[in-house]
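Risk register update: the risk of archive-format incompatibility is retired. Evidence:
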Amino acid sequence: MDERGTQMVGQSTPVAIQGVPHGTTIAAVRFRDGVVIAGDRRATEGNIIANRTIEKVFPADRFSAVAIAGAAGPAIEMVRLFQVQLEHYEKVEGTVLSLEGKANQLAQMIRSNLGMAMQGLAVIPLFAGWDLHRNQGRIFTYDIAGGKYEEEAFYSTGSGGRDARATLRLGFRPGMSRDDVVRLATKALFEAAQEDSATGGPDLLRGIFPVIGVIDASGYQRVGDDELVTLARELETELTTRRQPE
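Archived output:
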């Protein structure tokens, strides 16, 4: 099974499940005061663009967020249930569940979806948040069986995940500011879209931009489109300059 949750026949032949939109590229990056989580806006059905404006980044609660890749329908339902569970815990216990506890809860939900994943409806999220006990941002990744892994600096997954990770690896530096990391995450999605047809880059013509959330000690905040417009124009200028012959 590949990163998009496509069922594999034999060893190498992918079989897309017709009529099931799949979310594609998502990424998360730590910075000195928190963590940034991002996703492009394209969903695909095989080689068809199913949706140009799907949202793949959702606040889980005040101090955490989930980005989804894989089968979009099951992924969104999983996120909604996850949000309800975290809200219920806080109301019952009178306190916020620890970030580690949230990550473990999401792992259990992914594990319960294993039967569907083996049929091609895999959900591969990224989870990121502000750890109230450690006072730092943290990133957790998962496999289709619910295995949970923590990333020290950044990660990206989905169909364009490899290309996005290459950009993150080249651009990441310890101690980066919030603005630097938002730009880097936007650039990672932009570069992934140049190589992967299932990833949608910033679209100035249609006014479609990635969903990018910043999580720090003050909580989750979505980056405004006005900021992303400026970044998209800068990246387009950079790409145009790079292509010009000497």
